[in-house]
Amino acid sequence: MRILIVEDDPLMQIGLEQALKEYPGLEIVAKAGDGYGAVQAALKYKPDMVVMDIGLPRLDGIAATKQIKEALPATHVVILTSHTLETEVIAALSSGADAYCIKGATLERLFAAIEAAQDGATYLDPRIARLVMDNLKPPAPLPNPNLAHLSEREMEVLKLIVEGKSNAEIAEDLFLSTNTIKTHVRGIMNKLAVDDRVQAAVIALRSGIV
Hints:
This protein is an alpha/beta fold. Helices cover 51% and strands 13% of the residues.
């Protein structure tokens, strides 16, 4: 099994590499320290598995996971992070992650997550399993009435936010200025009554608009 490690903390990256070397039949083909590097490395090496942190510079692990899964649907992604916020957990799974493991867990749990993902199953750390179960019911899309207040342009911007694009990238795609995009993003967050882009993206994903 060929693995890509994505971790921005150099010490954590080294420790993770050493830990994974104990796993039989596993080859670490590349390492990346940010989300963009993760996507590029995945496209280049086409690993079987990606062990992905969430809190990454330039492009977060949730957006990187979404891009990798869209380009390489056969590649499995195991989220390994200290993040346990509801919005981040749900967003990561909605982006296509196959497993969610919390840093500090035993190596046995990490290996169990890798094995589950490899077998096509979903692994959830026991500390967040109940949270996920509560928030994935019902399985059908959950329309958010606040979405009706978004303008057509704001809806375009929201869909690009879900794709993990920065304000500058959205501005380039829509042929608008970065300041105009910032205004649209603020408007989206105000109308959806959320505090950040991740929460707005979660609402979009759970409502089935993307």
